Prior knowledge:
Order of helices and strands: HHEHHEEEEEHEHEHEHEH
Number of domains: 1
Organism: Zizania palustris
Signal peptide: 1-21
Keywords: Signal
Protein name: Serine hydrolase domain-containing protein
Distance between the termini: 18 Å
Pfam family, one: FSH1
CATH architecture: 3-Layer(aba) Sandwich
CATH superfamily: Alpha/Beta hydrolase fold, catalytic domain
Amino acid sequence: MLLAFLLRPLVSSSFLDECCAWKSSLTQLHMEKGSKAKVLCLHGFRTSGSFLKKQISKWHPSIFQQFDMDIPDGIFPAGGKSEIEGIFPPPYFEWFQFNKEFTEYTNLDECISHLCDYMVKNGPFDGLLGFSQGATLSALLIGYQAQGKVLNDHPPIKFMVSISGSKFRDPSICSVAYKDPIKVKSVHFVGEKDWLKVPSEELAAAFEEPVIIRHPQGHTVPRLGLHSKLFTMYVHIVIDCE
């Protein structure tokens, strides 16, 4: 009910006033706590932390006032041409490598080990945010943690934001990471023109009661308008209700 209320398509002026009052009270609560929600943000394939920062900079400024966003680079230099060459300056990075069918992966175990060490050293993190390869990897980490495979020395992740993510297709990974519905609160941005639209929906289905925000664009971080503010409030509610 709460999610339907937050994400309904028709918004009245009274609803906006209520949202503003609601957000004000949540902001005050976090000021009293003296802390922000810490979020690890993982960029897409053959891009960079700097590029992801630029991608999400189109969101409402209130998000960045309330969240402490850690945006590192991938651990491997790009092994081929980047789709953002000529759009955003190098260097470019990737988290791991994969075959055309996305069924075989190279350096994935090393990547997972690196990120787990990073989270313990630089966390704890309340949530994960990822775009494309970063979203796919974020969901894997959360699914693995839920099954006790990784991050046993890190507090449970409370929420995830997936933008154009997908599931791994290796059965040996799926049987662990998606064995049970992932109970972490999650928001999934799905683009109507995204070549990963269906895989993004399949990833959302791996979570318990996922929130899906659809947009008319392609494989990109969308501009959200009002939904950006509502998204911020939703994540605050998740954290405050823990």
